[in-house]
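so im writing up the methods section and need the Prolyl 4-hydroxylase alpha subunit domain-containing protein record in one place, dumping it here so i stop losing it
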Amino acid sequence: WRGRGAMARDATWQLICHRPLLYHCSDFLTPDECDAVLRMALPLLPPPVDEDKHGDQKQPRGRWKRRVDLEPSDSRLAPEDAALLRRLDQRLAALTGVRTHGGELPWAVHATPPTALLTDVEAEAEGASRRMALGLHVDTNNERQRRWLTFIAYLRTTPPTAGGHTVFPLAQRPGGLEASSERLAASDITGDERERLLPAAHRLLGHGLQHTGRPGATLLPWRPEGTSRDAEDLLRHADRVAEAAALAAEAAPTSTCGSQGLYWYPSGEGLAVPAREGECVAFFTRSEATAGAVDPHSWHGGAAVELGRAEGDGEGVAKWTLQRFREAPVEAQDANSIEAFALR
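--- predicted struct ---
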C-alpha cells in the first residue's frame, strides 16, 4: 500500500505462504507510531497480576497477560492519538478493500511479560508445554465466526533467542513438502507424528473446537473422545517449532532464518514469526483455498518469552503487540454468507 498526503510512504508486503495465506510487512508502523501507540495504551492497561499472590488472581506460569482496547472515540485519548488510530483504520481499508465497521472489535494492545520456562522434566511431569502455555487457537474463537483476516503488529522488538514468536505449527513452507525427506531427517518429528497433524486440526474444527485448551488441560469432560490427543499433537508440534526457532536465533543459520528473521521448521511444516518493532504479519483465517471456510492451517499461538533473556521494560513487559481482526459485515450471519464474503 502507499500512504497519501503528509503521511505518504511506501510499505511492501511479502507473501510468505499459501496455507495459511500469510503476508509479512517489515515497516507497517514507523518508530514514532509504535511509540505513540504505547504512550496511549500504557495509562489504560489493567494492573499487572501478581504471580506470587494466592487466591483467585493467581495465574499459572507463562499465562499472565494484559490487554487494552483502543478506540478513536475514547474521550481519554488525545486528539492526535485518536487521529493515528483513524489513520491505521484507513490503512487497513486500503489494504483489504473493506472499510472498518462497528461489527468489528477495535485495535487492541497486548502486553506479555517474561516468564520462567518449565524444564523438560517439569513439562513432561505436568503434561505441559515449555513455550506454548496459552495453547493454540483459530481466530473464530470466542464466537467470532465472521473473522476472516488478522493483523498482528509488533510495537517493540523481543530478542528471538528469548522466544515470543507467533507460531503457526501447520503453516506449509512453499516447496517444503517436496523436500520433506531431507528436512524430516533434520527435524525432531517422526513421519507418523507429522501425518497426524493436519487430520488433527481438521477433527478439532469438525467438532466445533477452536481452541486447544492449555497444555495439560485439554482433556475436558464435554469434549468428544479423541480430541484431547488431537490438541496435544498440535501443541507438541507448536512447542517444537517455538523451541527450534529460539535455538536457531542463537546460531542464525541462513538456511532457516531469512532476512525477516522468519523461522521455518526443517520438516517444512511450522512457521515462527519473531516480534520485531514496526513489523506486521497478516494472515487469513478464511481464504479461497478453503472456499471461505476456516483454514485448519491457521491454528496459531504466541510463544512464551523466557525470563533472563528478555527482562522486560519498566512495565515488566517483554512483548508488545497491536492487533486487529477484520470481520465480515454484521449482515453476514450464516455460514454461507460469511464464506461468500471471504471469497468476494
